[in-house]
Amino acid sequence: MASLVSCPHCGSRPKEEFTVKGAALKRPAPDAGQERWMDYVYLRDNPRGAYDEYWHHTSGCRRWLVVTRDTATHEIAASRDAALDVPETRA
Amino acid sequence: MTSYRLQKGGLIDRQSPLGFRFDGKALSGFSGDSLASALLANGQRLVARSFKYHRPRGIQTAGSAEPNALMTIGTGGRTEPNTRATMQELYQGLEAQSQNRWPSLNVDIGALNSLLSPFLGAGFYYKTFMWPGALWEKLYEPFIRKAAGLGKASYEADPDVYEKCWAHCDLLVIGAGPAGLGAALTAGRSGARVILVDEHALAGGSLLAETGSIGGATAAEFARQAIAELESLPNVELLTRTTAFGWYDGNVFGAVQRVQKHVAEPKANVPVERLWRIAAKRALLATGTEERPLVFGGNDIPGVMMAGAARSYLNRYGVAFGKRAAVFTTNDSGYALARDLEAADVELAVIVDSRADTAFVWSGKARLIKGAFVSDAKGGKSLSGITIWKDGKTETLAVDALAVSGGFSPIIHLACHRGGRPVWSDTHSAFLAPEQLNGLSLAGAVNATSGIAACMAEGAARASALLGELGFKVEPATFGAVEGDIAAPSAKAVWSIPGIKGKAFVDFQNDVHRKDLGLAVQEGYGHVELAKRYTTNGMATDQGKLSNVNAIGLLAEARGVSPAEVGTTTFRPFYTPVSFGALTGAYHGDHFQPVRKSPLHDWAAKNGAKFVETGLWYRSSWFSRDGETSWRESVDREVRNVRLNAGLCDVSMLGKIEIVGADAGEFLNRVYSNGFAKLPVGKARYGLMLREDGIVYDDGTTSRIEEKRYFMTTTTAYAAGVMNHLEFCSQALWPNLDVRLSSVTDQWAQMAIAGPKSRTILQAIVDDDISNEAIPFLAAQEVSLFGGQLRGRLFRISFSGELAYELAVPAGYGENVADALMEAGKRHGICAYGVEALSVLRIEKGHVTHNELNGTVVPADLGFGKMVSAAKPDFIGKAMVNREGLIAEDRPQLVGVVPLDPAQAFRTGSHILAKDAAATLENDQGYVTSSCYSPHIGSTIGLALVKRGSTRHGEDVMIWNGLRNEYTPGRLCSPVFFDPANEKLYV
Amino acid sequence: MRYSALSVFLNGLRGNKGWGPAWRSPQPKPHYDVVIVGGGGHGLATAYYLAKEFGITNVAVVEKGYIGSGNVGRNTTIIRSNYLLQGNNPFYELSMKLWEGLEQDFNFNAMVSQRGVVNLYHSDAQRDAYTRRGNAMRLHGVDADLLDREQISAMLPFLDFDNARFPIQGGLMQKRGGTVRHDAVAWGYARGADMRGVDIIQDCEVTGIRRENGVVTGVETTKGFIGCGKLALAAAGNSSRVAEMAGMKLPLESHVLQAFVSEGLKPFIDCVVTFGAGHFYCSQSDKGGLVFGGDIDGYNSYAQRGNLATVEHVAEAGKAMIPGLSRVRVLRSWGGIMDMSMDGSPIIDRTHIDNLYLNSGWCYGGFKATPASGFCFAHLIARNTPQETATAFRLDRFARGFMLDEKGQGAQPNLH
Predict the structure, then answer these.
(1) Are B663 and B754 in a shared domain?
(2) Of the candidates B322, B485, B937, C290, which lies 20 to 30 Å from B686 by C-alpha distance?
(3) Predicted complex ipTM
């Protein structure tokens, strides 16, 4: 990536300030069944192209972000606070 | 040795002579010289030996593409192998050594390889040296390794300093030649933030070697004035001696500035090199072109030089590259040199122009032969003559210098660093930059524009357009009329030259000649990438700057296709090699990583602590006392004393997280596998945190300080990871929960006070009643200290298995509080204890750490099956913790292990085998996760993860440490060696 | 033509005109018994062993670029078998044994150099972890030696023993570990397979997997449809993309790992050394360049290039380990695309489609595994049962909870 990552709170910041976790997947409901959970924990689309990922602005605002990034070109199309992505298990 | 220095001319300071040495020989040059120009001025033609055949080599270029003139400069920790003489500025006292020759540059035994060259063709080593197999490492490889390689690096530490920085700009201009100056002047006048970098000491690029004029001033004078203007502009940063080496994502450029590589004695407080990461809104590549060699016999003999380089030495440095010269060209640029040579009264014997139909009108004195080629150059260590081939007839001519121009390759290196592929242009006989570069544009010769005026105008126009995109309004700068410029429009490339007799080199440094490329095609390695790997063409320190395009042309001819079809190998950073020092900056030695010190560090130090690196922390290992001769003696004493009296241990490094909010309890209930919903205010609880895959992640205690306020401790190693994880859970998984998290690790000094007398000692400084009734086991509450002077948090928790407390006080008071406790505890026999004793105490008690939480165990493996709540609807790890493999019968489980003979010790990392079982991997039952000498048990004890361990207490086993030939008969047992009924915790 | 000192001599006398192509460039036939997707080290090795050990010669290797264009030509050339877990260790030792006889076996000098691999440790905890690992190796008959500070200092006196932030305490050494000339591995296997009848088809990209009645019948390629009895995927880096053509989603992410080479130097470092206090491992090629690398860049990527921050981290660790590197210059960096699996270990298995076989998930350990991977994959394809050292590399191990997690990092690929 991106030598610079755009944080919705802090602006364009060096990549070194961030930690990447991986695919931004929706956590299944606790009773979603083994197959759904297997999919969530272990299987990845791993696309060549646009990909939503969890990035943490570890050495900045400490917010988790969902960053949309192209895995072939490393261009970042968008980033937003992870809390705005409503997960499935939200009560 | 005769001097080749001209009587006048050049941008050198003839009033400032500089002495230097080459291979021990004292020579002199002038301020403004490069090492190469000074060597040439002294008539030193032979400067290096080639890699494989040890052929004599001279200076071929005047820039960073130099493949031959590599030298070792400096001494001791400043030894710098493979330095390009063409890029090294001369300084007083410079010491340069030639490389890869024995016993001397002049007499090099390795040159015998040339005689064997029929057998040393491309890839010969893949076909032999295989028998007998054992001889490869013993004989062939050491010999090859010794013969290979260039300069010799020093093992000594570098005495100089380096630094790294960031810079931001609107426009980055790379290259300060005609196009770059045109762009920088335009941009500079707009008020935009401009950075102009150039790899040479003097900005000006080709203008410095030019004899034409611009607006009536000489080209060099024009450049000087342009630089002066740029330097006067506060919004412009001019970085000379700075190479932009890579183009990275986000339009960030890496550049290295050689701040003090041109001085005899670097200033101690100034870096010798500085690494720049330049984030540019727009960037303009104005890097010009690389002149291509021509592939004829003996094209590597000292005295053969690129025409542009010869012109640079002539005009910029005032050095003639020979006494009787010839020019061999495929394009008009050779005539510019020819004109300048004659103007400087250097004898020019002949101009050989490959074009029969050239329209250039040569009005000089030298003979011009059109439609002809230099097929061979003659000479050993210095050029003595050339063979000229025309229409099948040859003629030989005695010359001592030959300038060669095979056309120009735009320096598009950086433009290709982000995945774009170069595009072949038949019109220009060159590879041009990829199209649609995001954030990067090109101007000038790198864009296949020719002529000074056109390049300057294009640079100015591009800068104006790029800044326009950013909202700056600026007209392109205009310049006076250019006179005397012999522009060289693109001409047809010449790959194969007829009539060659000698070895015709393509890659000079790696000794790849044209037949090697033919052999590669013949053997199926015709793909450009395979040919590169098979022949090593382009893999030398110049990364094929001179050789790649010629190789592509020759491969194309051999395969009968266009260079477009052959394509290029991949351009990758670094444009020119970058030192570890520059890339490292200050992050080396004991500054490699930052240091974290506990607020009790000084307290520990004055109490005699020996410290140990633990992650970034320095932790106190043990506290030696006078008369103690080994660490074990100290640790045993500390352990005994804690169990007998009391001890104080710094536990400030534990991760500490404050968790507040209306839903904090619910949050904890979801991140721990065991229940936290019902934890009352004033109580602490041990918690187990799983990963989503059901494996144990971390453990620690969390206390409920107030209704909506919790205080979590984590292990030292996972403090940062747990914080990130909790933030993820609260922000990404459950943003609707009312929870806020703060890392407070650095805010609290925390000390464990353990041992039967700990309560008595604590009571001396705690105002509140801390009797067993008031503060029972697992109580957690705020307390008043020193008669109300200070408030702290007191937790009755125990890692040691003793009556114990942890007291947290604001970090700044830590040392005073610890002092007060030591003072109060003196008469009760308190001692300070370190992590070694802490470890013994916890192993005796069977408490786990990350030795046991090894990233592959589930709670049940540790006997914590009941801490996986069945009642909770959801927590991290719940869904996956019961998979088949994680509940399998033969999973490793936590046990204790002791030696049958108490006098026999064993070590952590030993494996457990069933008694009398053969030592095979199939019989491996598990391993010792932690071990120590237990003063309580009187022998070494250990914790181990052993298959079905919980059912095997009492079984005799072998504790197997084949690495050290230690085989200890032992017995599995309960992991709790001390106070299994937990009576001590509740007293 | 057999390669030997004699053939080099005789051909040299005749101006090297007699050498034929190392492998043919055939047009694809309409149908093969086995089609292997991916002309990298693993795919070519699979073809070689299918032909040589299992007598299956009607085989095509289809490669979208040139052979060896993937990770077999983009690694730091290290071979070792110093693995911890029972599911891994015997497999990598099989690989080491195959390396030890490889050149004579396929008549190509790949410069297998057993110069030793040393992993440094800087703390008691690391020492204990290496004790555990070394003993696991010893239990399987793999050579391992635990060296103390003095032994390391005698062997590698130029490491930083005096001024280090994390002082070196010792190291775990595998003397049989070392390096191999990576490109030559691909070439040797290609030539060996070709000689036994395997068709190596370069510049042939697979664009689809054709299935009829639930079984794979062949692949659509840029050179047309190629039918097959069995289809074997060995497209590391792009495994997810190829598997998707068969409707499969894999437990993998593709990550970029950078590697580096310095300018050529006279012999500087004899063995392979791995830093224990940062991400840096280094050896020196026979040509003289220091070949080194570090950690993955950390994000999903199909671009074979990395970022500058990682370059800096690697250099920092390098100079922290060897202060003398300060004035050595780094010549080139490049990036390879790794199949990072969810437990850090590979997959060699059949799939839910009967005649579709999968070889993937090598993380950054694929190069050293090349011979055994090819051998075991060939075994699986030929016999339909896993080779005995590769039984743990099952695709269903994640669903069933039998992960092979050497580092204990769990289901986050960028941590392995």
Answers:
(1) yes
(2) B937
(3) 0.97
